[in-house]
Amino acid sequence: MALQLAYFAWVRERMGCGEEQVEPPADVATASDLIAWLAARDDRGARAFAEPARIRVAIDGQMMGNDAALAGARDVALFPPVTGG
Amino acid sequence: MALQLAYFAWVRERMGCGEEQVEPPADVATASDLIAWLAARDDRGARAFAEPARIRVAIDGQMMGNDAALAGARDVALFPPVTGG
Amino acid sequence: MIRVVVQDAAIDFATETDRHDAGGHGATASFVGRVRGDDGVTQLFLEHHPQMTERGLADLAHAAADRWRLPALTLIHRVGAMAPGETIVLVLASSPHRAEALAACTFLIDRLKTDVMLWKRETLADGAARWVEPRTADQERAEGWD
Amino acid sequence: MIRVVVQDAAIDFATETDRHDAGGHGATASFVGRVRGDDGVTQLFLEHHPQMTERGLADLAHAAADRWRLPALTLIHRVGAMAPGETIVLVLASSPHRAEALAACTFLIDRLKTDVMLWKRETLADGAARWVEPRTADQERAEGWD
């Protein structure tokens, strides 16, 4: 499953890039699984995703809960809680 | 007791004047008494003060309840509920 | 700074917002109330008391400033005759935080409808004039701040 | 008419209030949020998502227009770098009645703090930068509209 990932704010800074394409293994079924997989993948992932409860997710342009399934997803954005206004 | 009265809005229109000086009898002790006395005094008073519950009072520049005493008062304003804004 | 004005002249929003010191305060809420012409109203006349109207507005402004942090507060009410579309009242409230600016703005417009000596008279297209009756809903909203 | 803008350029209040069709609507409430410099902040940077930020604001604007009568609604959020005193966000809401204009304005500013993809980063006088943490109070205010 190829996914286009986008990172924002301190997630982007810690990952050292704003976007990348990934091919997670088949057992990465939900957004939470993806976050855990990225955290385990390398040092920058470990830094960005050390606290999964502080990560929010949007899948194909929709804000979703972290338990959302990735089946059929193309674009996944990962970011901290928003602070606009 | 000499009182300087001021009327506003439809009270003023029905009284045909914006202010007047009056000398109510000694048994006119409260704003309500004054309203009843004006209503009984003549036709214009009867028209302006037919519904005492719709009349508001300010005594010497302070909004007061209609049961407020007139002892020591100089200026009394009589008017309908306000509708600003 | 608290600024309260009762005026016959038209209220100019741009002039007043420039004059209102919104500078470093984080949040500014405003409210503009205009004459509505939708019931066939061709003119609105606001009657006021030469002293007590301004004093009533000033009392409300100080009550708001006691209740919330409001480094800048402007409250302007027009009186006399005005046409549909013209501004009757303008409130500008600035605070470090949005909740206070918005609450102050809402409080002031709610309370001035019931607490300040002002009376509206509408003139209709046929020339008939009628004094506006107070609305129960306005009374209830105003009492909600007690 | 609903107008939603995400822009790098400075937000000009007078231009936007002129453009906002406040004309015959009786009540217009506005909210302006500015960069505060009081914690030694010298610059604020707003990061956004190229598509989802504007869509999130538009969704909120339509949610407000479904909930209240809002013949004119303007919602503008600045992104990128800005200095203390500059405007971050502007809301203008017009309605026949004040309660709806004020509620819409409050709703929009409360909800955009929790629902829209925007992230604030502050730069301090010593050059250090920090991402602003979300506030529990903002979350609670936003949930109050559910």
From TrEMBL, chains A, B:
Recorded hits in Pfam families, A to Z, give: ThiS (PF02597)
Q: Which InterPro entries match?
A: Beta-grasp_dom_sf, Mopterin_synth/thiamin_S_b, ThiS/MoaD-like
Superkingdom field: Bacteria
The entry's protein name is Molybdopterin synthase subunit MoaD
Protein's organism: Sphingopyxis terrae subsp. ummariensis
